[in-house]
Amino acid sequence: MQPKFDWLLFDADHTLLDFDASEAHAFRSACTRMELEYQESWFPVYKNINRRLWQDLEQGRISSGELRLQRFQQFCDALPRDALSSDPDAHRFSACFLEELQNTAHLMEGAEEILRNLRPHFSLAIISNGIRETQHKRLERTGLKPLFQHIIVSEDAGAAKPDPAFFTHTFSLLGSPLNRERMLVIGDNLGSDILGANRAGLPSCWFNPGNAENPGTAKHDFEIQNLSQLAEIVFAE
Fold first, then answer.
1. Contact residues for 104 (Cβ-Cβ < 8 A; gap 6+)
2. Which distant-in-sequence residues (6+ apart) come within 8 Å of 187 by Cβ?
3. Chain-centre distance of CA 186, in angstroms?
4. Cα–Cα distance for residue pair 192/189, rounded to 1 Å
5. Angle (nearest 5°) at CA 29 between 153 and 24
6. Residue pLDDT, tens place only, 19-58
7. What keyword terms does UniProt attach to this protein (predicted)?
8. What is the DSSP string of 107-121?
9. Could you say which DSSP state residue 10 is in?
10. What is the pLDDT of residue 171?
């Protein structure tokens, strides 16, 4: 079998890393460190706030620093006053959460096996809208960081996917000459990963484990429901 691509550009969270599991653990632990009596109803409130702010980041409306602080400011503002014995420090809350998040990393099913199988045949890179220190430490904890030639994070790029500027930064790191037809973006998010690939002129593979429908906001070239299916796409018979 011959490789059809030179570079495989992987999104991190929800593609290779099980962010939902890590986020839930980190949020609960941060609440404990903030001496808050954690309630199960709090996490969905936080997730909704965080999701909206990440969308703002991807649209260039806020910076990663603003996201880190505002999500905890808004979460605390959303809680009933009787749930708090005092006004929590959003800066400290954010720091506690990021420390806990950095110390936990759960892989998506099949991620380690497929990456180790692909590495001898392709150059691999991470392209993430995450936070630099957090993503590097989480990847280190998985033991898979050495498999990637580059870990490219929006905080370093000065722009977030789907902004073409993120991919311009990516291309500058990968070197030249680059054949965009032989660079495949793999990610779960249509609005950032797949749309970003469209804008950068790159083929893309939508990781869609939930069998969601594509509303047409972005066009994917390939689709997989589990990571093991990637081998069928990246090799020519």
1. 21, 22, 25, 26, 138, 141
2. 10, 11, 15, 127, 193, 194, 197, 204, 205, 206, 207
3. 11
4. 6
5. 60
6. 999 999 999 999 999 988 889 999 999 999 999 999 999 8
7. Hydrolase
8. BPTTHHHHHHHHTTT
9. E
10. 97
Which amino acid, residue 49? Answer: I
pLDDT bucket at 236, cuts 50 / 70 / 90: confident
- The C-alpha angle with vertex 41 and arms to 40 and 46, in degrees rounded to 5, equals 105
C-beta of residue 161 within 8 angstroms of C-beta of residue 12? no
Q: Residue 204's beta-bridge partner residues? A: 185
Alpha carbon 182 to its chain centroid, in Å, reads: 22
Q: How many CB atoms lie within 10 A of CB 105?
A: 22
Q: List domains and CATH numbers for the chain.
A: 2-17+107-236 (3.40.50.1000), 20-102 (1.10.150.240)
Tokens of 37: 């009596």
pLDDT of 85 reads 64
59 token code pair: 């649209």
| Tally of residues, the chain | 237
Q: Whole-number mean pLDDT of the chain? A: 94
In 10 A of CB 1, how many CB atoms?
9
